[in-house]
Amino acid sequence: MPLHQRIARWIAARRSVRERARMEACGHLDELLAYLEHRYVGEAQARGMVFRLEVDPALAASLPGPLGVLGEVLVGLLDHAFAQRSARVALHVDVVGDNARVQIVHFTVADAQHDASVDAALIALASAAMRGVGGAVHAEHGADAGHRVIVELAFERPRPWAQIDVDALRSTLGGDAALREVIVALDAALRRDLADLERLLAEPGANALQAWLHRVSGALGMAEATALSRVGLTLERELEQGRQAHLDTAIRRFADDARQVLAALREHVGPIGYSPDT
């Protein structure tokens, strides 16, 4: 191989390593999409092309995930689309499945004019990479729609931080004495319900679980843990469609977060004389 080709390959490999590291450093999906938009808007302008990133407003903020692998796959697909010299290239990000625990997202790389016959090896590589992180890839072709490659990946929603506005609760109740009384009552109620959860999950049907979620969400709302309370009420509504494995998992996670709230309540009351064993 001529020296200039070896140098070009070495430079490309170094660039690929740096880019992969940059994408892996993204803390959440928003950052990765911002990076891709900046990269390809500039490239499109330099080539006299048009690049668009369109993101579904329903996409949750700050989704974590295997962003290094996803970014590498999307870069490979976008680079290939740009190499076809299409007038327009787009990346569409659509939420196609959504519940309290997971969002399923489609990343569609589309270009207007494309020779699909050269894509088999690229699609195979992308598919193998995404299968390794629980995703999938498939391609679509149409005379009107052009060429589209869809990357599908499920993202687990970030767990809501179990924050409690104790100052607001104290102010609403009128002082530390009233705060202590309410926290003692909340502690007793939450402990009973949290201890009873596994029994309810082992039973068929959704009515008892819905009542449990309603009680615990109400207690969390009284404790000013409003974000977590809303999660519980959402799960209660989703149970109207019946029991599903992913909902049982989400309810267990919700219970774990409620236990964090309970522990935080005890910490706040401890200095003013409350013992959780009382």
TrEMBL record:
Domain HPt: 175-272
Domain of life: Bacteria
Alphabetical UniProt keywords: Phosphoprotein, Two-component regulatory system
Residue list for modification Phosphohistidine: 214
Listed InterPro entries: HPT_dom_sf, Sig_transdc_His_kin_Hpt_dom
KW Phosphoprotein (keyword) present: yes
Transmembrane segments: none
Protein name: Hpt domain-containing protein
Organism the protein comes from: Luteibacter flocculans
